[in-house]
Design a protein that fits this description.
There is one protein chain. This protein is an alpha/beta fold and 415 residues long. 32% of the residues lie in helices and 20% in strands. Magnesium ion (MG) binds next to loops.
Length: 415
């Protein structure tokens, strides 16, 4: 069985925790879009690991991790991540494959992303060069992982690109130009180390499918950050929805058997852009504190607010999701009342074009006081917590099949 795990809000739903938990039943974990903008957290015992580009199911010993063609790949972030992970499990390097088709995130992409964010009306990106790298990809001038193994071609493409990027840096942004020799030298070193890991992911995965291997597709970001269907322009530059998995690795659309939506028990967002259920009073502050809502990649405080069923219904539709893995329910413990947005003042359904004007209409139910983080049986949950889950199911028309009640691997209730 092949499944995709997709965030149904604005990212940081807990996909890392969920993929690590589910991955024990899979042979291959594939990232298919995005890059080092992702921060997927996995907690095993006292250890907290944050994955940016490496698929986080890799902590399961028998899994192969694939960084698929739809990703943009930054070798410097990758090696830093890999070196840290190898301290936990030295076999990880042998189990990671990188698509030859991935576009490279180059130093000038990062520089331009940073300068744009700092000097213009930025959208609050992670400053990892993601948008600028995808611009070059779709502008058909990008450098790919596979190009690194043809030094002459790489050098020619790089020089061509850099001469133009340096003009932009100097003339528009009044910044220092970058040296092509330094970049060429640096990428030659990367190429040597990357060579054994680079594959044609389309061939690798189609063979795996024929051999009846089980594949988990690990979505990054969230549906509301999707380049087509998110709150544009306050989105990321890739296809974060389940359909992105097919185009992101080059397998047929019929090979994904199920899509699991990861949903936080409340809502968060990092960076700018509309967020109808945002609460900038006490509740938002409490959620940020109790949920430790600070970016895994940038450390930025996350904007917080109640659960918005309209957003999740919209996202579920775009992904063909029927079941939810609900995360961070434990964070709500201690609230007198729990609110859930069920519709909007002027509309029943979420509409990204109207997102700035949507004011949620809330239903409110009594909260629960108990610490639920040690509970593993659904029937042991306080009645108010079970009622809240029922309310979510009712207003999203989705089934909650798993409930996460803590950051650790075992803190899961199977319903
Ligand atoms: P991702 O980007 O979707 O993988 O999510 P992040 O890792 O950026 O953010 C989720 C945060 O919540 C991480 O710090 C996780 O360790 C933590 N987390 C995940 N699930 C739970 C949960 O059920 N309860 C609590 N308290 N924390 C959780
Ligand atoms: P994970 O996978 C939350 C947001 C940024 C910004 C917008 C564009 O951990 O859920 P980008 O750097 O991609 O050009 O930034 O997207 N963003 C995320 N928000 N979680 C993420 O990843 C994100 N990746 C990007 O904050 O608003
Ligand atoms: Mg994250």
């Amino acid at each position: 069985m092949n499944i995709a795990v997709i965030g149904l809000q604005w990212g940081d739903e807990g996909k890392g925790k969920v993929v690590d938990y589910l991955a024990k039943d899979f042979d291959i974990d594939v990232r298919f879009q995005g890059g080092a903008n992702a921060g997927h957290t996995v907690r095993v015992g006292e250890k907290e690991l944050i994955f940016h580009q490496i698929p986080c199911g890799i902590l399961n010993k028998d899994i192969t991790g694939v960084i698929g063609a739809g990703c943009v790949f930054d070798p410097s972030v990758f090696f830093e991540e890999l070196n840290n992970l190898k301290k936990v499990d030295p076999t990880i390097e042998e189990r990671i494959k990188i698509s030859q088709f991935c576009h490279l995130v180059m130093p000038y992409h990062i520089m331009i992303d940073r300068i744009r964010e700092e000097t213009q009306q930025g959208i609050g990106t992670t400053k990892k060069g993601i948008g600028v790298a995808y611009e070059d990809k779709y502008g058909r001038i990008g450098l790919r992982v596979g190009d690194m193994f043809n030094p002459e071609r790489f050098e020619k493409l790089l020089k061509h690109n850099l001469s133009r990027k340096n003009l932009i840096l100097m003339e528009i942004y009044r910044a220092e130009p970058l040296s092509d020799n330094e970049i060429i030298h640096q990428f030659r070193e990367y190429a040597d180390r990357l060579r054994p890991m680079v594959i044609d992911d389309t061939a690798f995965l189609s063979r795996a499918i024929k051999e009846k291997k089980n594949i988990i597709f690990e979505g990054a970001q969230g549906t509301l950050l999707d380049i087509n269907f998110g709150t544009y322009p306050y989105v990321t530059s890739s296809h974060t929805i389940a359909g992105g998995a097919n185009i992101g690795v080059g397998i047929g659309p019929l090979y994904i058997d199920k899509v699991i939506g990861v949903v936080k028990a409340y809502t968060t967002r990092v960076g700018r852009g509309p967020f109808p259920s945002e609460d900038d009073s006490c509740l938002g502050e409490d959620l940020r504190k109790m949920g430790k809502e600070f970016g895994a990649t940038t450390g930025r405080p996350r904007r917080c607010g109640p659960f918005d069923a309209g957003v999740v219904r919209y996202a579920a539709r775009l992904n063909g999701v029927e079941e939810i893995f609900l995360t961070k329910l434990d964070v709500l413990s201690g609230l007198d009342k729990i609110k859930i947005g069920v519709a909007y003042n002027n509309k029943k359904d979420f509409d990204p074009f109207l997102a700035e004007e949507l004011n949620p209409i809330y239903n409110e139910i009594p909260g629960f006081k108990e610490d639920i983080s040690m509970i593993r049986d659904f029937n042991d949950l306080p009645e108010q917590a079970r009622n809240y889950i029922k309310l979510i199911e009712h207003h999203t028309n989705l089934q909650v099949n798993f409930i996460s009640v803590g950051p650790n691997r075992d803190a899961v209730i199977k319903k």
